[in-house]
Amino acid sequence: MSTQGTVAVRNAVEAACVDLADNALVLVACSGGPDSLALAACTAWVGERQRFRVGAVIVDHGLQDDSAEVAEAAAHACRAFGLDPVVIEKVQVGSAGGPEAAARDARYAALSATADSLGAGAVLLGHTREDQAETVLLRLARGSGARSLSAMSPANGMWRRPMLDIARAVVHECAAEECARIGVTPWSDPHNSDPSYSRVRVREALPVLAETLGDGVIGGLARSAQLLRDDADALDAWAMVEIATHVLDAQPGCSIDVAALESMPKAIRTRIYKVMCERCGSAELDAGHIAGIDELITRWHGQGTLNLPGRVNAAREYGRLSVWPPKME
Q: Looking at the domain assignment, is residue 236 inside a domain?
């Protein structure tokens, strides 16, 4: 009889993949650690019963001397669980945004490219409830907004995180059972104990928070992410209605009546600014850029044109906020 941990992970995978067509290909992102091995084993089990194919992608970041051996061991375990195809992708990790962000960007690019080349219907990621709590704390410390604090989504396009509501200890119980069945030992990533990484420091802080605030703190952080996601979704939908009603596209560029903006809550105005700027080619706005645009509405004293990332411009002219790309300069 399977442990409660294995049953919990299987049920979560089944729920995450219930919409997939027969014979669809589902890829599991596998590092060889206990979380991803539990996910691989349970996805193979569910796929056989729901009649979808299950493969794996192992990303070799090349950041450790034995990274190739670790990748091969993960591939061996996935094959033993019955996954096919099993692909190892070696990537070059850059430096943009720091080592954690650079490794994450390289990993997602490799997973996306492999999923496209194989025609996968979904890619499953092994994040747990603790991973979600850690993400909330990291983003809270950075002063992020509601959308960012909503952390990781259970499903976003082809990306799915079945175990996001399952405690890490429960997932590890599953991994222990499934790995014992095929005679393998999960890999322990040394980076997970390296305090030079911010996520590791947050991970070490969670037990202290639990001791101080009670055992429910991790679940509370994860629930906060879901509540903030619901709020952010509602605000985004409201903003899109206002955009459809008030924003005029005048290629190349767009504009909106200042009086309409003045009547809206700030949370809606700022979303409108972001969408207008993205339409003109500026996707790297920070809080300072948004504040500068908002001052054109709320603290107007004849300011000149704002120069934004991507050489996009914003200005208040004749009672309208206008945003335009560089080719109109």
A: no
Same domain, 144 and 180: yes
Each residue's pLDDT, cut to its tens digit, for the chain (329 residues) gives: 788 999 999 999 999 999 999 999 999 999 999 999 999 999 999 999 999 999 999 999 887 888 999 999 999 999 999 999 999 999 888 877 777 788 889 999 999 999 999 999 999 999 999 999 888 888 887 777 777 777 788 999 999 999 999 999 999 999 999 999 999 999 988 777 777 778 788 888 888 888 888 778 888 888 888 898 899 999 999 999 999 999 998 778 999 999 999 999 999 999 999 999 999 998 788 889 999 999 999 999 999 999 999 999 999 999 999 999 986 44
pTM: 0.80
Q: What's the token pair of residue 76? A: 């061996």
CA-to-CA separations, 214 to 165, 208, 220, in angstroms, rounded: 18, 9, 10
**Can you give the CATH number for the domain in which 64 is found?**
3.40.50.620
With CA atoms as reference, report the closest residue to 182 among 27, 30, 37. Answer: 37
How many domains, in total, are found in the chain? 2
Strands (E), 36-84: 53-60
Residue 253 lies in a domain: yes
